[in-house]
Amino acid sequence: MVNTTSSMMYSLSESIEDSPAPIYARVKQAICEKIESGEWKTNQRVPSESEMVKALGVSRMTVNRALRELTGEGILARQQGVGTFVAKPVAKKKAHSGLFEVHNIAEEIATRGHQHKAKLLEITKSKANMDEAMNLGVRTNHPIFRARILHLEDELPIQIEERVVNASLAPDYDKQDFQHNATYDYLMKVAPMTEGEHLVEAVIATVEECELLQIEIGEPCLQIKRRTWSNDQLVTTARLLSPGSRFQLFGHFGQ
């Protein structure tokens, strides 16, 4: 068993790519590749957290997050007091996003081993109307950016993002690289998020939105309305629209 675990860990360490993605995401991707290739088989026990920490030279928090998310996604299965195993294959899972966290969608797609692409549909600098001013907690005519972006996963549209940004807190928002979603990094740099809220609803997209998402008219969609704060200031409001057949939310909580 020791030799089997050692060989699994050596193979895993060799598969971890050197990329800008977070370490936990690269560990997740490497584990997924082992399972998808058949090298790690259904019901096979995977190395423990402590074994991975020692062999990979990463923190326990990194390994714990990778294994926890893979378990939540149904790729691994944990048995209390026994260990973690490769789960039985099920129908292809939808792309999902954390319910209690705000992530970079490009990073989420990368963790699934897929390619993210963004198309900037529109961006303007304007003055807030009454509704936008109320949502951002500013005065009417306050300077804002309005942006509309289409996100794709392996060339398949997965989300329409409509965002309003407080221009006084993020003055160079319109100069960012929307293609590679550098807007997330920019906003986290100039106005680090300290608080956020979600409102999740099932909706029917408009005809134009169905065309952008390449779905049939009337297909149910998942809509997330999100606001984020930096300290006591509202930075952005966003409406995120995804086909219900391609997207889901996942949350984990406990004491």
Characterise this structure.
- By secondary structure, the protein is an alpha+beta fold.
- It has two domains: 2-86, Winged helix-like DNA-binding domain superfamily/Winged helix DNA-binding domain (Arc Repressor Mutant, subunit A, Orthogonal Bundle); 95-250, 3-Layer(aba) Sandwich (Chorismate lyase).
- It has helices at residues 2-15, 23-36, 49-56, 60-72, 105-111, 130-136, 182-190, 207-213; strands spanning 76-79, 83-86, 95-98, 116-127, 143-153, 156-166, 195-204, 220-230, 233-243, 247-250.
- The protein has a six-stranded antiparallel β-sheet with strand order 4-5-6-9-8-7. Strands 1-2 form a two-stranded antiparallel sheet.
- Helix 1 crosses helix 3 (49-56).
Number of domains: 2
Q: Distance between the terminal alpha carbons, to the nearest Å?
A: 35 Å
How much helical structure, as a percent, in the residues?
25-40%
Give the number of DSSP strands. 10
Q: What is the name of the CATH class of the largest domain? A: Alpha Beta
Total helix count? 8
CATH superfamily of the largest domain: Chorismate lyase-like
- The fraction of residues in strands falls at 25-35%
Oligomer: single chain
CATH T-level fold name of the largest domain: Chorismate lyase
Pfam families: GntR, UTRA
Domain HTH gntR-type: 21-89
InterPro entries: Bact_HTH_transcr_reg, Chorismate_lyase_/UTRA_dom_sf, His_ut_repres, Tscrpt_reg_HTH_GntR, UTRA, WH-like_DNA-bd_sf, WH_DNA-bd_sf
Organism: Vibrio algarum
